């Protein structure tokens, strides 16, 4: 609303809310801080889990930052931006979601104090950008080289990632599974760089057994069963034919009329159809295949002939599963049985139908060089299985990050502390007010070791002072061992390792979200649209008199319904 000569002029729709200047900034920062505070207690090996119950009563128990924020359905626009930080972190590197959100919350909390000192938001965001660039440079400089051949480094990174999860008791065994899975599907590109596509690691979940019974299948699991009871349920040294078309006689596309004068002609038709199906099965047998995986249907008669030949068959398999089978077994997907040849078949050590908790699944395993594998997750309840799934996803991402980026740093808050110390030195080389922004950026990084110690029930100031003293002596990976309660000069020696990519992405995501929130000085919220008068159709709202909804402005005797009809 504006004033013109004392006359108010409405520019925006009635009911629109507008918050400007300092109030808008404080509002946004407060919302972001609440989100950071919500996930803060779940950081680290001593972090706690959250139980989230949705409107339908479904329960999720987790300490994964991205999952927590996704489930709590936030409404405030600034809070939604914090949720986006966690989503970006999760999709880019798969781990460090809680760290990135806590950092963003701390950046905003400290930036608020600079705003109170009348320092312009643009100056703060520029200082943060310089500090982030320098922090990434410091992290890359302090990194240790690792990669696909560094089994110890990969295992420690995966175990560190899982140490804060519900699976921490089984982290040793699960870390080995994740490393085997990534090593199976990793490939070198033209430049000699390693690339690992996580989508090639399929996750299958089934409650029952224990977490320790989770295993890696060097092949594929199909949620199907063998089509006919007469077929073998288990085939060793399988030669697998992958067929995209149906094993059926195609019906004519157009309307056709056949005139039959004797029963022999019907029999001739049936015999010819049977002969065609026999020929199809014979082509499969001649190719040397003893397992048929078909994307479409298999005729009942064809099933009978396949059973007689001792060929196991599975039908109506998803196209995506067929492609994964091709990557796992090395077989080519064919469209026409005339193309079936021994060199196009896939190989598997064992194809077997098994019952898992009452469901029949087909296991295609022991493939020689599979480029697609499955991790079959087991656990006591659905809730545990889901949390194991999230933990394994994070561990797979961490192993992939190390394989692709080939850099690791010590964990336990050590890289953040070392980066903060070097950033303070860098701040002293800057002139002007940006120096203050870089200093508070450095101070904000201390929130990670502080939170880790606080969650473990230790005095955070005490721990921080001891760690700073250790870092000042040149121990760049000095951290606090929460098990022994002692300062360790090199966290890598006790197996606490994290990929550099995770730390770098956390700083990038947190800085960009912080800068965006700080630059907002005006919030214009449109009025919530109410239901128009007269119900969902809006009849009666805004129409000329006499044209309104039922009974609205109609001539006498025509309006509404007679009494007693409502």
Q: Would you spell out the secondary-structure blueprint of this structure?
A:
Elements: E1 2-4, E2 7-9, E3 17-20, H1 21-40, E4 50-53, E5 59-62, H2 65-71, H3 77-92, H4 97-116, H5 121-142, E6 144-145, H6 151-162, H7 171-185, E7 187-188, E8 194-195, E9 201-207, E10 215-217, E11 220-222, E12 234-243, H8 263-286, E13 291-294, H9 300-308, E14 312-314, H10 319-329, E15 333-334, E16 346-356, E17 359-365, E18 373-379, H11 382-405, E19 407-410, H12 414-427, H13 434-445, H14 447-455, H15 460-472, E20 479-481, E21 486-488, E22 497-499, H16 500-518, E23 522-525
Parallel strand pairs: 9-18, 12-13, 12-15, 13-14
Antiparallel strand pairs: 1-2, 3-23, 4-5, 6-19, 7-8, 10-18, 11-17, 12-16, 16-17, 19-22, 20-21
Describe this structure as you would to a colleague.
This protein is 44% helix and 17% strand. Strands 11, 12, 13, 14, 15, 16 and 17 form a 7-stranded mixed β-sheet that branches. Strands 6-19-22 form a 3-stranded antiparallel β-sheet, with helices on both faces. Strands 9-18-10 form a 3-stranded mixed β-sheet. The longest helix is centred in the middle third of the chain and has 24 residues, at 263-286. It has 3 domains: 10-145 and 409-522, GROEL, domain 1, CATH 1.10.560; 151-217 and 377-405, TCP-1-like chaperonin intermediate domain (GROEL, domain 2), CATH 3.30.260; 220-369, GroEL. The protein is built from 16 helices and 23 strands. β12, α8 and β13 form a beta-alpha-beta unit. By secondary structure, it is of the alpha+beta class. The two termini are 44 Å apart. It has helices at 21-40, 65-71, 77-92, 97-116, 121-142, 151-162, 171-185, 263-286, 300-308, 319-329, 382-405, 414-427, 434-445, 447-455, 460-472, 500-518; strands at residues 2-4, 7-9, 17-20, 50-53, 59-62, 144-145, 187-188, 194-195, 201-207, 215-217, 220-222, 234-243, 291-294, 312-314, 333-334, 346-356, 359-365, 373-379, 407-410, 479-481, 486-488, 497-499, 522-525. α5 (121-142) packs across α13 and α5 (121-142) runs antiparallel to α16. Residues 531-566 have low confidence and may be disordered.
């Amino acid at each position: 609303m504006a004033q013109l000569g004392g006359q108010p002029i409405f520019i925006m729709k009635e009911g629109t809310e507008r918050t400007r200047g300092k109030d808008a900034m404080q509002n946004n920062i407060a919302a972001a801080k609440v989100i950071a505070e919500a996930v803060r207690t779940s950081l680290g090996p001593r972090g706690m889990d959250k139980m989230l119950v949705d409107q339908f009563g479904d329960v999720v128990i987790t300490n994964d930052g991205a999952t927590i924020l996704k489930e709590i359905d936030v409404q405030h626009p600034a809070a939604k931006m914090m949720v986006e930080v966690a989503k970006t972190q999760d999709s880019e590197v798969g781990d460090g979601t809680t760290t990135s959100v806590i950092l963003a919350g701390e950046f905003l909390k400290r930036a608020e104090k600079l705003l109170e000192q009348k320092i312009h938001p643009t100056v703060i965001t520029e200082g943060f950008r310089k500090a982030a660039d320098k922090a990434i440079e410091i992290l890359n400089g302090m990194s240790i080289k690792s990669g696909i051949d560094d089994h110890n480094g990969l295992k420690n990174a995966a175990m560190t990632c899982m140490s804060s999860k519900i699976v921490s008791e089984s982290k040793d065994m699960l870390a080995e599974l994740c490393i085997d899975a990534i090593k199976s599907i990793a490939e070198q590109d033209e430049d000699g760089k390693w690339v690992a596509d996580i989508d090639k690691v399929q996750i299958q979940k089934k409650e029952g057994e224990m977490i320790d019974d989770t295993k890696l299948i060097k092949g594929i699991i199909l949620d199907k069963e063998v089509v006919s009871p007469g077929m073998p349920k288990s085939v060793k040294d399988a030669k697998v034919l992958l067929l995209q078309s149906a094993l059926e006689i195609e019906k004519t596309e157009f309307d056709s009329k056949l005139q039959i004068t004797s029963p022999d002609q019907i029999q001739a038709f049936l015999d010819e159809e049977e002969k065609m199906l026999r020929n199809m099965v014979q082509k499969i047998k001649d190719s040397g295949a003893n397992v048929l995986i078909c994307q479409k249907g298999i005729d009942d008669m064809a099933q009978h002939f396949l059973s007689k030949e001792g060929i196991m068959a599975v039908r109506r398999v998803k196209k995506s599963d067929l492609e994964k089978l091709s990557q796992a077994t090395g077989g080519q997907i064919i469209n026409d049985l005339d193309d079936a040849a021994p060199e196009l078949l896939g190989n598997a050590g064992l194809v077997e139908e098994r019952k898992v908790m009452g469901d029949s699944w087909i296991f295609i395993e022991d493939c020689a060089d599979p480029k697609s594998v499955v991790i079959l997750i087991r656990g006591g309840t659905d809730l545990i299985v889901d949390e194991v799934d999230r933990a394994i996803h994070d561990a797979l991402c961490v192993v992939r990050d190390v394989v692709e980026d080939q850099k690791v740093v010590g964990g336990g808050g050590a890289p953040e502390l070392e980066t903060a110390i070097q950033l303070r030195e860098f701040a002293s080389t800057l002139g002007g007010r940006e120096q203050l922004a870089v200093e508070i950026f450095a101070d904000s990084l201390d929130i990670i070791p502080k939170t880790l110690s606080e969650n473990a029930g230790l005095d955070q100031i005490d721990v921080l002072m001891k760690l700073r003293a250790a870092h000042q002596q040149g121990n760049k990976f000095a951290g606090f061992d929460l098990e022994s309660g002692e300062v360790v000069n090199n966290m890598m020696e006790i197996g606490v390792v994290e990929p550099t990519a995770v730390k770098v992405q956390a700083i990038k995501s947190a800085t960009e979200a912080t800068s965006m929130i700080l630059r907002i000085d005006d919030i214009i919220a449109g009025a919530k649209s109410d239901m128009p008068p007269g119900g969902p159709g809006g009849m009666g709202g805004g129409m000329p008199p006499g044209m309104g909804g039922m009974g609205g402005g109609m001539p006498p005797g025509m309006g509404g319904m007679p009494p007693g009809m409502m």
